[in-house]
Each structure stands twice: as structure tokens, then as C-alpha cells.
Amino acid sequence: MLTNALIKQYIEVLKDAIEIDVIYGGKEDILLRGNFTSPVEMSNPDILNRIKHLPGKSEVIMTEPKVVIRVQMPGKTGLRKIPWVNIGMFVITLLFTLIAGAAHAGIDYFSNPELFWKAPLTILGAGMPFSFSLLGILLFHEFGHYIASRLHGVKVTLPYFIPFPSPLLGTMGAVIRLKSPFITRKQLLDVGAAGPLAGMVIAIPLVIWGLAHPNFVPDTPAMVGLLYLGDSLLFIIISGIVQPPIPDGLIAVLNPVAFAGWVGFLVTMLNLLPIGQLDGGHILYAMFGKAQHKIVYAIMAGMIILSFWWFGWLIWVILGFFLVKPKHPPTVLDDIPLDKKRLTIGYLCIIIFILCFVPIPFMGL
User: Does a structural domain hold residue 139?
Assistant: First the structure.
């Protein structure tokens, strides 16, 4: 049955009791928002009894300050399927990050490709510290979003990990797809902030341990192939506290665990950019509403300026304009403000963004 036809049926059945003023349509759900037409309000069972004969599975989300009804589209209910795509992408990402981790551990499989079939366990074992650390950060980040979404009744997919056959990282991160709109800015803030906060719970201890156990190598003019990383304020602070003194004639090189933590800080910072459907876009819109639309263009202008020193910023600007979209869409009940607790969480996320910000993440090979 077509979505428009189903919406018309619900509006027709409810019109003498509830005036529907906003409709949010998705692939699986329809959200109807409206007001009672008479001073005598209907109870949730009365509303459901009126629409129970219509196609779809109905649920009354709330009746104050607005009536919000969710209708699950016909044919979208049933047993949950095994998420083979999610599992497959995670397994491939695990393999690629193990191979990348082996390179960071000093396994030269470029010069000795026969290691892949002669000593595969050596490569996998050497790659574990980096792979498990990085994937641990990403898993906590994405499942922070997932759990917060489920607690609020917001429908999302399981995380999709993005494998990338690169000796540097082995992955392009992970994403969760939103399947229903946010009802309130409270939901938006909780879901947006849960990922970065959960990821940092893992990233900070990994950075502390990694920086406390650096690898020292001779500082020679002939040394080539090193990747020089930009430092965030948080990374500098932790390094100053836990990193041991560097012996004369040596330089400190990040071990794989510390590098995974550094990547975790970078991923957190990039996700907290206040662009559209990124975590930072969720948080900033939840806190300041449509003012996010003005802030995002100022931030993107700054990213264009920074792209003269690191080209990656320009790529993020292009992705922001054409894929993520700069402006965050409104929630169903956009007029309900945040409480002080959630404003505090929002400002904490802004502080984390500032502490993790790296103007030039990669400074050369």
C-alpha cells in the first residue's frame, strides 16, 4: 500500500478528534503530529482503538504537549534477520586493521609478501594491539549511539564498519543509519553525544598506556618513511604527564596502541564537527536549534582555510555539502528546550572537540 494512501486513511479516521499538522514519512515508519480538536482529550487506548483496524502497527508516543503517533508500515514487522552484511563488513575490517597493525609493528610484508602464506599468524599476532585498540574505540562509539537510540525508541541499524585496504588504518570508520526521525531535541542530544563520550572512555586509557610505553629509535638523518602526526591539546597534556624522558640520540615513536588512541581522538573530533547529521550537528542543533545553520557555514569556511595546510579538510567540506548536508533537520517537537543536565553534556562535547582538535593531522611522510 502506498504511503500517501495510508496517511490519508489515518488523517480521515482521526480528523474529528486530532488535527494532524505535521507528517514525517520514512521507509519503515510514519510519524503523525497534531493537536486534540476538543478540550476533552482522548486517552492512549482510545486513540489506538480508533485506528486499530487500519493497516500498520500503531503506537502513541505522547499526548503532551502534542499528540505524536508512530505507524509502522505494513510488511515491515516480523522476525529479525541475521545482519550478515554488518557481520561481513566487520570481519573484513578486522582483517584489514590486523594487516595495518602488523605494518605499524614493523612487519615488512611489502618486501616479503610471502609472509602472508608462510607466516600468517605472525602478521595477525603483530597486528592485534593496533587492530583491537582501534576497533574497540569504534565499537564503543557506535554502540553508544545504538544503545542511546534504542533507549529512546529511535530506530537505527546496527553499525556498518567500512573496510579500507590501507597499511595506515585499514578502515574508514563505521556508521549507523537512522531509520526514524528524532521526536525531541532531548533524544537528539542523547544519541548524538553518546557515541563520542563512549569512544573517549576507551580512547583516553589507550593513549595513556601507549604514551607511557613509547618505542625509542635512533635519530638519524637517513631515517625516512615516518609519518608525522599533529598533536591535539589533549594528546599534548597526556604526553606531558605520562611519557618518559627521551634518551639522548633517540626519538620517541608511537607504539601501535598509542597510534590507535590518536586515531580515536581524531575520529571523535571529526564526528563532532557541527555539520548536518554528524554527531556535532546533532549536538549543536539540540542545543541551539536553527542557529546551527549559521554556525556550520562559519566552521566550514574555517575548514576551507585550513585545507591550504591539510587537503583533507577540503574533502570534509565537500562531503559536508553534498553527502551529509550542512543544515540539520528539525525534530518532531522542536519547541521543547533542553534541560540543564543535557546542556551541560552538550558543552562537555564542545570541550572535547576543542581538546581533540588537530589543525593539521598529518604533516608529512
Answer: yes
- pLDDT tens track for 160-191: 999 998 888 889 889 998 888 888 899 999 99
Q: What's the rounded Cα separation, in Å, for the pair 257 and 238?
A: 14
pLDDT of residue 330: 87
Residue 174: C-alpha distances to residues 15, 140, 145, 256 (Å): 43, 11, 11, 20
User: Looking at residues 352-361, what average pLDDT do you find?
Assistant: 94
Judgement on whether residues 91 and 68 belong to the same structural domain of the protein: no
> How far, CA to CA in Å, does 192 sit from each of 11, 20, 175?
32, 28, 13
Question: Taking a C-beta distance cutoff of 8 angstroms, is the pair 291, 244 a contact?
Answer: no
Q: State the residue for C-alpha cell 593496533.
A: 130
Q: How many domains does the chain have?
A: 2
| CB distance 115 to 106 below 8 Å | no
163 inside domain: yes
Identify the three-state secondary structure at position 90: helix
Dihedral Cα 62, 63, 65, 69, nearest 10 deg = 60
In a domain, 364, yes or no: no
Cell numbers found for residue 235: 594528546
The three-class DSSP label of residue 169 is coil
Question: How far is Cα 199 from Cα 246, in angstroms, rounded to an integer?
Answer: 30
Percent helix / strand / coil, the chain, rounded to 5: 50, 15, 35
Alpha helices in 25-83 (DSSP H): 44-51
pLDDT digit string (tens) for 288-329?
Answer: 988 888 899 999 999 999 999 888 899 989 988 888 788 888
Per-residue model confidence as pLDDT tens digits over 236-256: 999 999 988 888 777 778 889
Q: Average pLDDT for residues 130-153, to the nearest whole number? A: 94
Determine which helix (DSSP H) or strand (DSSP E) holds 175, and give its type and residue range: strand 171-175
| 67 and 88 assigned to the same domain | no
Q: 136 and 198 in contact (C-beta within 8 Å)? A: no
User: Per the confidence metrics, is the pTM higher than 0.90?
Assistant: no
Q: What is the pLDDT of residue 229?
A: 84
Same domain, 216 and 319: yes
